[in-house]
């Protein structure tokens, strides 16, 4: 008898001496590993036969269903130990698994029979070789053979000869071997399982295997309530059948988010059909008998009403949707009817789902204003609809949920958790509360926005944002850009986006008259206007102020009457500039309106004799004078009419200021009086543009064009001139749509409501054949304000002219999004921009001068500097860069918005991908680690290897950087360059998905080449070297980040954890890109 301590004298050494050619071996052990075979390969190849009993049930056919999960897991790990146990990771990381598995399977076929215990009885493990016995043995692995230490404190094995134990063990094994009640033969299953380690895998399988490893805890958390319940039959609906694949993905994701977090923001970019996606979600909830409210801007209500109505042009009429549609502005109303609903009787609290279209209108959050403490729209929505009555889910649609501040996003999300952070904090898997997460994100963003332009990249921002922030976005937002769709979805059934021609920039001067005025001279005069007509409160004498305090302060709000007046004055000042840029005609109208107002007021002051004259401050500004965005500011909706007694005013000074303004306005009017349409260079340039488009269409036969302007006055002016010109020269029909009143068209007897006009302008996308059967009315030119710049699909048209450049570049892109849409029949589209006749820098500086000048006076008058937003300071620089870009190219909205796109951040679609797969396949659960597939390289995917690794001893702590810890993915090119590191798992998974998804057969030719290069997996040196480079890169990136974090607020991660190297990682799988 002999004791082997398995340290100095190991079982392996002993077996190498004992096993001879023709030996017979019997093993009873818990598991079998191909690496143990590799250690004794030379001896084992020569044995006559080997009998192996698995001492616990392994590989047997299931009699019980796998409901007993806890029992199932240890069994799975025994079965997977074929490919090496957790202590043989090092061997697996040498990447030779494929070659070893192949040889081992060959040997088993010739010499080995496996049986497994099928009872619940315990069996002890031992090995007998001819006449010798070794016991106890746990498993047949490199640890048991003594090649690895494993986690054993001690592992002595006793070796006895058969004359000592009277053949006891030989007989025991033999009796067991023939007892069919206790054992079942499993050799074939073992061979089949081992062969999965060396068969060629399809790229598709490796993609799902990666997802399974990373997200399988998510599979366990998922409850049926959060998954779209197929039984409601919403997948049989008409709307579901009309959706593209990327929209279906979004629908399922939205429903699961609404169920889990009660809210979701769908922020797909312009032109990706958010409305249809939302309709499918509505259908799902209506099938579950829920009531739904859609809140949209008034200008989009036509669309929403069509989809629920029993109309011939409703493509989904058979779905019989029944949601209510109200406008954003209805939230501020108490009485009256809107869209057929009586507001005073409406049960606001009874909606189960609210869909808010263009939800960025709610980004400023809540405040209470007015004497009767009136809630603004946001608060009303929160209190009356969401908090009251039944539990309400909120789906928000917006292509620009973040304007410049993350707080915009937070305000919109707060609707979903009823403004009570505790509700969402418990559902989120984050370490910090939602308020804290946003605070830190905003701090990081502010720091980022101060960086010089060349360093201000999205990647730089992603690196500074916190892990929790991504987790949060992942939970409640879905955002895809058109680039994303084109790249990661098969767009064959969708059709492509049209290609964008470089924009044309035109800079006509004001007029062709000799010695006439130019832009700069007008600007200088404008700068001298004080516009005190809008700020009478500033002239109330201090001693009389008390009398007006109550009147002028809307209780409970920060906006005083004085502040409101200043706001209108500032808007007006900037507005004069905007209107001048738009058209001389609009500018002249505004000058006249202000002049009239001033002269009237001066007259009142002159008539003042008796001291009883009240100055009646009616609303002094005609909201029609402003562009679409400005009309929505609170200045116009807040505050009551205030009467001021002239006796209480320093009317002498006021009159002096007013008269000065009146003279300057008179002068301005005279200067531009001669500029008639014939001498309006800008208008004449527009005519030339129309001419060239008609003579040289960019798509054969397409004569259509859209002209956008910010002001309805300009639209009227253009309609008056363009319609006659186009009709006379080319026989084209023109229409005008301004939102405030019905439109106009040159086609006699054609109804000029929004819907008819758009249908005749874009007959294909708007379904004219169905709506107006037999009609051949066709409009060629559409002149419009921003009332149609969102949410309309006008893709029949291929040419868009911005007659004035909107001060907010996002608007320009939104306008372009009307024709730049997925599935367009045009192969190319053109954007034309009219700029003021001056250098861009001059133009921007001018804007900032006007804005700053107005603000300085605001600060002095209101005593709070709230109206200067810090973002505007850096914003001008940024806007300059944006406008510069707009001259050269058409930019996507997500590249435009101040550099943050929530597109780059979410991982949810991958979880849903995995779910779909798991429903149909279970092969990923049992597959061995360390497998690979070979895929062809492509654009942005150079030749190299993508490694998916798992950190096994948690030494690389989550230190809040890696969002999918303990998994690390690294893409390394053949020459050792890191293509993508582990800190950007979204980009990494997107890349893997792009390389693999849909390729469900191995790429035979590539596999053959790879096998040749590596001698069927025997010589994996090159790949192995890349693997260690990849692991070193994880360590380097980590150290670099740690060092950075020493100098950052929020604590360091440097001392939290260490990564030492190869042994800390297990290779899950890899992808060879050739």
Number of strands: 33
Multimeric status of the protein: single chain
The percentage of residues in β strands lies in 5-15%
Our count of helices gives 41
Largest sheet: 8 strands, mixed
Parts with pLDDT < 50 across at least 5 consecutive residues: 63-71, 552-559, 636-640, 856-874, 1048-1059
How would you concisely characterize the structure shown here?
The chain is an alpha/beta fold and 1074 residues long. It is built from 41 helices and 33 strands.
Description:
This protein is of the alpha/beta class. It has 41 helices and 33 strands. The strands form seven sheets. An eight-stranded mixed β-sheet has the order 1-7-6-5-2-3-4-8, with helices on both faces.
How are the secondary structure elements laid out?
Layout: E1 2-4, H1 11-18, E2 24-29, H2 34-39, H3 41-45, E3 49-54, H4 69-80, H5 89-92, H6 97-111, E4 112-117, E5 126-129, E6 132-135, E7 157-161, H7 162-165, H8 168-177, E8 183-185, H9 187-195, H10 203-221, H11 238-242, H12 245-261, E9 263-266, H13 274-287, E10 292-296, H14 301-308, E11 324-327, E12 337-338, E13 341-342, E14 353-357, E15 368-369, E16 374-375, H15 377-387, E17 393-397, H16 406-416, H17 421-425, H18 434-449, H19 458-464, H20 467-476, E18 477-478, H21 482-488, E19 499-500, E20 504-506, H22 519-527, H23 545-552, H24 561-582, H25 584-607, E21 614-617, H26 628-631, E22 642-645, H27 651-672, H28 681-695, E23 705-708, H29 712-730, E24 734-737, E25 744-745, H30 754-761, H31 763-766, H32 768-771, E26 781-784, E27 799-802, H33 809-816, E28 828-834, H34 840-862, H35 870-888, H36 893-896, H37 908-920, H38 923-926, E29 931-935, E30 944-951, E31 967-973, E32 978-980, H39 985-996, H40 1004-1013, H41 1021-1046, E33 1065-1073
Parallel strand pairs: 2-3, 3-4, 9-17, 9-18, 10-11, 10-14, 14-17, 19-28, 20-28, 23-26, 23-27, 24-26, 27-28, 29-33
Antiparallel strand pairs: 1-7, 2-5, 4-8, 5-6, 6-7, 12-13, 15-16, 21-22, 24-25, 30-31, 30-33, 31-32
């Amino acid at each position: 008898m002999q004791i082997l301590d398995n340290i100095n004298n190991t079982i392996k050494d002993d077996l190498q001496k004992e096993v001879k050619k023709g030996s017979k071996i019997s093993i009873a052990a818990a598991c079998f590993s191909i690496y143990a075979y590799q250690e004794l390969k030379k001896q084992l190849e020569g044995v006559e036969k080997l009998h192996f009993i698995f001492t616990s049930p392994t590989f047997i056919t299931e009699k019980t269903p796998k409901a007993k999960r806890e029992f199932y897991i240890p069994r799975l790990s025994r079965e997977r130990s074929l490919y090496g146990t957790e202590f043989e990771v090092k061997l697996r990381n040498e990447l030779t698994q494929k070659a070893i598995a192949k040889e081992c399977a060959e040997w088993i076929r010739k010499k080995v029979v496996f049986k497994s215990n099928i009872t619940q009885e315990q069996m002890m493990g031992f090995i007998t070789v001819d006449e010798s016995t070794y016991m106890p043995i746990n498993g047949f692995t490199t640890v048991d053979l003594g090649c690895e230490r494993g986690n054993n404190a001690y592992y002595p094995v006793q070796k006895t000869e058969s004359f000592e134990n009277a053949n006891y063990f030989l007989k025991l094994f033999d009796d067991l071997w023939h007892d069919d009640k206790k054992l079942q033969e499993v050799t074939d299953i073992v061979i089949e399982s081992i062969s999965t380690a060396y068969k060629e895998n399809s790229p598709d399988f490796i993609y799902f295997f990666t997802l399974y490893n990373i997200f399988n805890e998510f599979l366990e958390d998922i409850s049926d309530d959060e998954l779209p319940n197929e039984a409601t039959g919403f997948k049989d609906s008409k709307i579901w059948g009309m959706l593209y694949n990327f929209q279906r993905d979004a629908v399922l994701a939205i429903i699961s988010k609404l169920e889990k977090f009660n809210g979701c923001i769908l922020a797909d970019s312009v032109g990706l059909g958010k409305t249809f996606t939302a309709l499918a979600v509505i259908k799902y909830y209506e099938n579950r008998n829920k009531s739904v409210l859609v809140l949209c801007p008034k200008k989009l209500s036509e669309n929403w009403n069509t989809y629920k109505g029993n109309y011939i042009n409703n493509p989904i009429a058979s779905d019989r949707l029944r949601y209510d549609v109200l406008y954003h502005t209805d939230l501020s109303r108490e009485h009256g009817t809107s869209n057929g609903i009586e507001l005073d009787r409406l049960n606001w609290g009874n909606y189960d789902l609210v869909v808010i279209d263009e939800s960025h209108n709610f980004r400023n959050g809540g405040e209470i204003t007015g004497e009767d403490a009136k809630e603004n729209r946001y608060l009303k929505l929160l209190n009356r609809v969401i908090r009251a009555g039944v539990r309400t889910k909120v789906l928000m649609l917006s292509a620009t949920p973040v304007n410049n501040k993350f707080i915009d996003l937070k305000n919109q999300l707060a609707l979903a958790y009823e403004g009570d952070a505790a509700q969402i904090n418990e559902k989120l898997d984050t370490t910090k509360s939602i308020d804290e997460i946003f605070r830190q994100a905003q701090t990081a963003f502010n720091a980022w926005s101060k960086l010089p332009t060349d360093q201000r990249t999205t990647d730089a921002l992603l690196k500074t944002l916190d892990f929790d922030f991504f987790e949060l976005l992942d939970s409640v937002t879905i955002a895809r850009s058109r680039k994303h769709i084109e790249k990661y979805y098969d767009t064959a059934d969708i059709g492509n986006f049209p290609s964008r021609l470089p924009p044309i920039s035109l800079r006509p001067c004001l007029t062709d008259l000799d010695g006439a005025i130019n832009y700069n001279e007008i600007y200088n005069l404008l700068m001298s206007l004080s516009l005190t007509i809008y700020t009478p409160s500033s002239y109330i004498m201090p001693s009389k102020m008390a009398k007006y305090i109550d009147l002028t302060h809307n209780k409970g709000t920060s906006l005083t009457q004085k502040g409101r007046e200043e706001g209108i004055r500032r808007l007006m000042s900037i507005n004069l500039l905007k209107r001048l840029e738009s058209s001389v005609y609009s500018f002249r109208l505004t000058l006249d309106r202000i002049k009239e107002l001033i002269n009237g007021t001066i007259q009142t002051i002159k008539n003042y004799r008796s001291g009883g004259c009240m100055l009646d401050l009616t609303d002094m500004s005609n909201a029609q004078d402003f562009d679409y965005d400005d009309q929505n500011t609170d200045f116009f909706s807040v505050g009551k009419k205030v009467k001021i007694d002239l006796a209480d005013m320093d009317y002498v000074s006021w009159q002096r200021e007013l008269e000065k303004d009146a003279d300057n306005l008179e002068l301005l009017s005279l200067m531009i009086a001669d500029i008639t349409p014939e001498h309006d260079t800008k208008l004449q340039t527009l005519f030339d543009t129309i001419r060239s488009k008609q003579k040289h269409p960019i798509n054969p036969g397409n004569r259509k064009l859209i002209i956008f302007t910010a002001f309805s006055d300009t639209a009227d002016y253009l309609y008056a001139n363009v319609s006659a010109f186009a009709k006379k020269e080319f026989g084209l029909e023109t229409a005008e749509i301004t939102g405030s009143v019905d439109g106009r068209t040159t086609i006699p007897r054609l109804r000029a409501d929004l819907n008819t006009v758009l249908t005749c302008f874009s007959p294909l996308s708007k379904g004219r054949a169905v709506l107006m059967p037999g009609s051949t009315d066709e409009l060629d030119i559409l002149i419009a304000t921003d009332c149609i710049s969102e949410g309309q699909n006008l893709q029949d048209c291929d040419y868009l002219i911005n007659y004035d450049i909107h001060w907010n570049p996002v608007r320009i892109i939104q306008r372009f999004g009307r024709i730049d849409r997925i599935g367009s029949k045009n192969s190319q589209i053109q954007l034309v921009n009219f700029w003021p006749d001056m250098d861009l820098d001059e133009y921007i500086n001018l804007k900032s001068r006007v804005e700053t000048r107005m603000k300085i006076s605001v600060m002095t008058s209101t005593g709070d500097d709230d109206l200067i937003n810090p973002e505007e300071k850096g914003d001008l620089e940024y806007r300059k860069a944006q406008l510069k870009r707009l001259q050269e190219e058409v930019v996507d909205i997500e590249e435009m918005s101040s550099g943050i796109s929530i597109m780059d951040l979410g991982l949810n679609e991958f979880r849903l991908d995995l779910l779909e797969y798991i429903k149909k396949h279970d092969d990923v659960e049992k597959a061995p680690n360390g497998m690979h597939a070979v895929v062809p390289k492509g654009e942005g995917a150079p030749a190299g290897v993508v490694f998916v690794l798992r950190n096994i001893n948690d030494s690389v702590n989550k230190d809040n950087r890696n969002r999918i810890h303990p998994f690390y993915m690294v893409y390394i090119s053949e020459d050792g360059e890191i293509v993508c590191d582990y800190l950007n798992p979204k980009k990494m998974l997107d890349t893997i998905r792009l390389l693999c998804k849909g390729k469900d057969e191995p790429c035979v030719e590539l596999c053959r080449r790879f096998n040749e290069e590596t001698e069927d997996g025997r010589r994996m040196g090159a790949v192995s070297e890349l693997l260690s480079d990849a692991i070193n890169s994880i360590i380097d990136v980590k150290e670099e980040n740690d060092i950075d974090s020493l100098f950052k607020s929020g604590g360091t991660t440097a001392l939290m954890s260490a990564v030492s190297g190869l042994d800390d990682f297990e290779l899950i799988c890899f992808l060879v890109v050739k």
